[in-house]
Amino acid sequence: MVLALQDRCKTVTRRLASSPLARLRPGDLLWVREAIRISAINVTPGRLIFSYDADGLESEVPWPKRLSKPLPGRRIARFMPREISRLTLRVIHVHLQRLQEIEDRDCYDEGIGATQHIEASCGDPRRAFAALWDELHDKPGERWVDNPEVVAIRFACARAAVDSLIPGLGHGGVR
Q: What DSSP assignment string belongs to 113-124?
């Protein structure tokens, strides 16, 4: 989905209404966590070299404060320090709905066209989205068939670290 964000194919995300994201309001910023691979440690003192798994782009940054002792190799996205985020979502609109109220256009706005699910579903965007949803939500009450209440979050994606978009922080990191 990172590639779909970069290509501007994904402009909406849905989350369970019980998610903390249900409290978002227009104007709020979300930084995108993505899987990274640490390439080198201590090559340049105080610097970290890593690549983003989505596209292999390599970057060198000052050592993030929250990254104490990473080991070379893959790290899962939820532990990616915000200082090295490169995509930020600015919330435009938030509304509640039942999951199965999603329309074909909404499925494409969710980025479903950028996944293998659309081909496996014979081009049916709702069926493709349902398959993707069920891969991520397998608990009773959360599955497609259960039609849970969700929050639909429409956003604009900026190709910038969240800290660079917050007045007063600039590029200096979290303060």
A: GGSTHHHHTTT-
Up-side HSE of residue 51: CA atoms within 13 Å toward CB?
11
Handedness of CA 22, 105, 160, 75 (dihedral sign): positive
Sign of CA dihedral 139, 102, 156, 24: negative
Q: Which CATH number fits domain 2-30+88-158: 2.30.130.30, 3.50.50.60, 3.30.360.10, 1.10.10.10?
A: 2.30.130.30
For the stretch 128-169, pLDDT in tens is 999 999 999 999 999 999 999 999 999 998 887 887 788 765
What tokens were used for 139? Answer: 């608990």
How many helices (H) and strands (E) are present in the chain, helices listed first?
Answer: 4, 8
Helix (H) or strand (E) holding 153: strand 149-158
Q: Are 47 and 59 spatial neighbours (Cβ–Cβ below 8 Å)?
A: no
- pLDDT tens digit sequence for 98-111: 999 999 999 999 98
Q: What's the whole-model pTM score?
A: 0.77
Count how many residues are written for the chain.
175
Closest CA to 89 of 42, 39, 37, 154: 154
Which residue has tokens 């320090």? 81
